[in-house]
């Protein structure tokens, strides 16, 4: 196959997201059928199994499940099964395995073990022919299409939307808050482009960066740190806004860049004091989100306002563009990050 221009694949797949998200909403009825079947089994706990970007999507789902469904939820440690051969009693537990490829050996083994332990198993994947799809009792397809760039972009946002549609349907929702998500995503990409360009110029020579957020948006902060690290090799750490003030803030100074995800709602509102503190220590703060313009910051990238629980679907779009732009500005090809492959096989 003829090699494309540097960053061509990641660019194209970022730009596909409005159409991918709009098309996924059209499958809401199919996802709702799965949600009703799961709700009829009345699980008492949800356990989410994932790695990498999918683990950040799983954290988002944890917030959705606990807040919107009132059901306890936790993030699993696959190695308890794969390395330590633990077999916990998972009766009355919903185990949701999130995997774009559906073929990572550790996630597959953890799902098989959970099913043997009595769990109700659900696979959320972009690959309907995957082993994970065959193993789980139920499955939800994110339908993002083939993703060629190593860094996950459209598969990540589509996973978030699929998880939201599932949880929303489980609580009896109609999906009304994401009915126009495709148009909102298009708007977010267009309106954030100039802000992203300014941020690329501002941070292209940064040595270290902190990402931070609270609530639903913490998943975006984690995903931002991963994207910046894997594409532009910028040393990036993610912290909850609350945890940042519990110790790491001591290392913040005038050489520190902070990317804060701040959307309208309780999570974003809780970030004002955090950013006031880091700004007071001389940090250079970039805010991204629907509440970005109201926060103490050197630069902001505002986004369309939505209900708080779906904000992460839009927040990640300019973050992906920032990672792409910084990689190119620093002389790297984000389509071919060193040492990485599209499917990571761990155990």
Describe the structure.
By secondary structure, this protein is an alpha/beta fold. The chain has two domains: 8-178, 3-Layer(aba) Sandwich (Rossmann fold), CATH 3.40.50; 190-329, Glucose-6-phosphate isomerase like protein, domain 1 (Rossmann fold). 46% of the residues lie in helices and 15% in strands. It has helices at residues 8-15, 17-25, 28-40, 52-68, 79-82, 105-116, 131-135, 154-170, 181-203, 218-232, 241-244, 266-269, 272-280, 311-329; strands at 45-49, 73-75, 93-99, 120-125, 138-141, 208-213, 235-240, 257-261, 284-289, 299-302. The protein has a five-stranded parallel sheet with strand order 2-1-3-4-5, with helices on both faces. The longest helix has 23 residues, at 181-203. The two termini are 32 Å apart.
Blueprint (SSEs and pairs):
Blueprint: H1 8-15, H2 17-25, H3 28-40, E1 45-49, H4 52-68, E2 73-75, H5 79-82, E3 93-99, H6 105-116, E4 120-125, H7 131-135, E5 138-141, H8 154-170, H9 181-203, E6 208-213, H10 218-232, E7 235-240, H11 241-244, E8 257-261, H12 266-269, H13 272-280, E9 284-289, E10 299-302, H14 311-329
Parallel strand pairs: 1-2, 1-3, 3-4, 4-5, 6-7, 6-8, 8-9, 9-10
Features:
46% helix, alpha/beta, carbohydrate derivative binding, five-stranded parallel beta sheet, Rossmann fold, SIS_dom_sf, 347 residues, globular, 14 helices
Binned strand content: 5-15%
User: In what order do the strands lie side by side in the largest sheet?
Assistant: 2-1-3-4-5
Determine the mean pLDDT. Answer: 93
Our count of domains comes out at 2
Could you list the spans in which at least 5 consecutive residues all have pLDDT below 50?
none
End-to-end distance: 32 Å
Question: What helical percentage do the residues reach?
Answer: 40-55%
Class from helix and strand fractions = alpha/beta
What is the H/E string? HHHEHEHEHEHEHHEHEHEHHEEH
Query: Which oligomeric state applies?
Result: single chain
CATH class of the largest domain: Alpha Beta
Return Rg in Å. 19 Å
Number of E strands:
10
- Biggest sheet record: 5 strands, parallel
- Count of helical regions: 14
CATH topology of the largest domain: Rossmann fold
Q: Tell me which CATH architecture of the largest domain applies here.
A: 3-Layer(aba) Sandwich
């Amino acid at each position: 196959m003829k090699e494309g221009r540097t960053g061509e694949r990641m660019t194209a797949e970022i730009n596909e997201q409005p159409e991918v998200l709009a098309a996924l909403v059209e499958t809401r009825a199919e996802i709702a059928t799965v949600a009703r079947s799961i709700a009829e089994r009345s699980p008492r706990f949800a356990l989410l199994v994932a790695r990498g970007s999918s683990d950040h999507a799983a954290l988002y789902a944890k917030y959705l499940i606990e807040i919107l469904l009132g059901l306890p939820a936790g993030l699993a440690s696959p190695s308890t099964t794969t390395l330590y051969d633990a077999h916990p009693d998972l009766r009355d537990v919903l185990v949701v395995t999130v995997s774009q490829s559906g073929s990572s050996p550790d996630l597959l083994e953890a799902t098989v073990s959970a099913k043997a332990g009595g769990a109700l198993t659900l696979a959320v994947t972009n690959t309907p022919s995957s082993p994970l799809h065959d193993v789980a009792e139920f499955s939800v397809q994110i339908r993002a299409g083939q993703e060629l760039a190593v860094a996950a972009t459209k598969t990540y946002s589509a996973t978030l939307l699929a998880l939201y549609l599932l949880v929303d349907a489980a609580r009896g929702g109609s999906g009304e808050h994401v009915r126009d998500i495709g148009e909102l995503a298009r708007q977010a990409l267009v309106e954030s482009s100039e802000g992203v360009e300014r941020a690329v110029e501002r941070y292209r020579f940064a040595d270290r960066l902190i990402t931070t957020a609270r609530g639903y948006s913490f998943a975006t902060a984690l995903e931002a740190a991963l994207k910046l690290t894997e594409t532009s090799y910028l040393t990036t750490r993610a912290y909850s806004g609350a945890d940042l003030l519990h110790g790491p803030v001591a290392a913040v100074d005038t050489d520190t860049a902070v990317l804060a995800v701040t959307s309208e709602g309780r999570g974003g509102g809780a970030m004002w004091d955090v950013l006031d503190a880091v700004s007071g220590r001389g940090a250079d703060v970039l805010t991204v989100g629907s509440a970005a313009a109201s926060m103490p910051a050197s630069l902001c990238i505002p986004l369309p306002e939505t209900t708080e629980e779906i904000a992460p679907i839009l927040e990640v779009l300019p973050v992906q563009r920032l990672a792409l732009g910084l990689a190119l500005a620093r002389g790297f090809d984000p389509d071919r990050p060193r040492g990485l492959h599209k499917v990571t096989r761990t155990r």
